[in-house]
Amino acid sequence: MSRVPALLCSLALLALPARAAEPDAEWEDFPAGADSRADALPESTRSPQEPESPARAAWRLRVRALSAGLPSPPLVVERLGAEPPGLSRTAAPPPSLPPPLEPAATLLGGRPLADAQWGGAAWVGLPTVGLRLHRGLGAGWDVGLGYGGLYGQSNELSVHVRRGLSEGETEWALGLEGSVAWFGVRPSAPPSGARALTGRRNFNLAPTLHVSRHAPLASVRWVGQVQLLLTLDTEPVALSPLGGVPPAVSLGWNVPVLGGGEWALGRHAVFQLLGGFEVHGRTGDTPFMPVLRLGVLFGT
User: Which of 43, 38, 80 is nearest to 57 (CA)?
Assistant: First the structure.
């Protein structure tokens, strides 16, 4: 009799793996057979408050297809913000960047102002300060008026004409500057003050070569100019007591060289930083004078 319970226990243990290997029908539905039970209900008794989502319907079709031995449809996972059926989303074009700023105008470089375009400049520096106002005439020409001086020791009014020669990566132009200057003190021997520092005299004429070149950055332009400044002194003085009576008019020459960069601050404003030197050929003047300018330009 003691072998009967032992035999029953052995049969029970052998049945457990077989029971565990059988798939549970409840796991075939999503979730936990809720959809199968809902399908068994009449249409009138189904709750309209929770419509079946696309993900649940796709899962149920996939399980039924696997059970029937048919190819299963692809599983579509619903994502938040998906477009309604029948609508397609087109990629929005990337936002266009504004074109890089370029210096609006240059009064020192080789690009004359365009027709009816206005341009101006104001600067402080060593040894002079100044103002300029130009207007484009078209066909590569512009003209302008200017003021300069040595901080009240001299005052100079000038007229400028510029003609463009070439355009492109490097721009060239020829110019002509004429000016009349007044000095706060009478000339002395040897010359001193504004006359000696600037090399200017009562009347001045300067043929000019202008050049400009675009820098790697679109908002920067390199500019430069070389002048041959011819001076006419109507108040010459004797350089020595034995020099005799000076002539009524004395001629002289200078070579100013100036160059630097112009940075666009906006559509109509430009910052200018220039440096250079002047070689004075008149006896008694400062033979070599460094030049520095900080200025702002504007253009229409």
Answer: 38
pLDDT value, residue 80: 47
pLDDT for res 8 = 60
162-209 per-position pLDDT tens digit: 999 998 889 999 999 999 999 988 887 777 789 999 999 999 999 999
User: CB count, 10 Å around CB of 29?
Assistant: 19
- Tell me which amino acid residue 219 is: S
Could you count the other beta carbons within 10 Å of the beta carbon of residue 131? Answer: 14
Backbone angles phi, psi at 117, to 5 degrees: -85, 140
Name the residue among 238, 149, 146 with its Cα closest to residue 188: 238
pLDDT digits (tens, 9 = 90+) for 203-222: 999 999 999 998 887 789 99
